[in-house]
Design brief:
Layout lengths: L1 H25 E8 L2 H8 L5 E9 L8 H6 L5 E9 L5 H9 L9 E2 L2 E2 L5 E5 L1 H19 L7 E3 L4 E2 L13 E4 L2 E4 H12 L1 H9 L7
Parallel strand pairs: 6-7
Antiparallel strand pairs: 1-3, 1-6, 2-3, 2-8, 4-5, 9-10
Helix pairs in contact: 4-5
């Protein structure tokens, strides 16, 4: 009897371990730069299969950079977003295809009203599979758009999460001071996004192919 019980316990343990292994295998991370990281976070947290989006910095050599350092320039870092997703629900290729249609892929100098190197677009691929999928998505998007896409596919390096006050900015009720006076972060975000012309430019560029979260 004890032997049978031990076998059952072992079987349950092995099955549970396999289930965890499958769950971990389905989880993947995409790292992209699309101008203001608040906007990338807001766009992709609602995509089916996406588990979380973290705003941060990548692409440079400065260790543990601050927003002040990155925005001032010279660090080599982009404002970036790390997207954790379930690849059994949405593939990396399809996620990148959506990303390309959410930004101005023809602008090499920044995005919308945000200018400078830290606001450029990029896809930071991890490994050969992501690189191939990203390059395919770029090629397909370029053919669909009929214009040159300047968003590069780069080898992913270290991702540094941004300061806590940047995370989930678009839905925070914290009060901040803006040019239009004190506002909740979520309202300040809406004001900024509209004033920056992000959605209008993406719609003008991509038309019906634009990604609308």
């Amino acid at each position: 009897m004890r032997r049978i019980y031990a076998i059952l316990v072992l079987a349950v343990a092995l099955t549970g371990g396999a289930a965890v292994g499958v769950a971990r295998a389905a989880e993947e991370k995409a790292l992209v730069a699309g101008g203001c990281f608040w906007c990338v976070e807001a766009d992709f947290e609602g995509v089916k299969g996406v588990k979380s989006v973290v705003s941060g910095y990548s692409g440079g050599k400065v260790q543990n950079p601050s927003y002040k350092q990155v925005s001032a320039g010279g660090t080599g870092h982009y404002e970036a977003a790390e997207i954790t997703f379930d690849n059994s629900i949405i593939s990396y290729h399809d996620l990148i295809a959506l990303f390309l249609r959410s930004v101005d892929v023809t602008d090499a100098g920044g995005q919308f009203c945000d200018r400078g190197d830290s606001y450029r677009t990029a896809i930071f691929a991890r490994g050969a599979a992501q690189t191939a999928a990203a390059e395919q998505a770029v090629s397909e998007a370029q053919a669909a758009l009929g214009q040159e896409i300047v968003t590069p596919v780069l080898k992913a390096g270290k991702f540094w999460p941004a300061e806590e006050y940047h995370q989930d900015y678009y839905r925070s009720s914290d009060i901040v001071l803006t040019r239009a006076g004190p506002k909740q972060k979520k309202n300040a975000y809406k004001f900024y996004r509209k004033a920056c012309g992000r959605d209008e430019r993406v719609k003008a560029l991509w038309g019906q192919m634009a990604f609308r979260p």
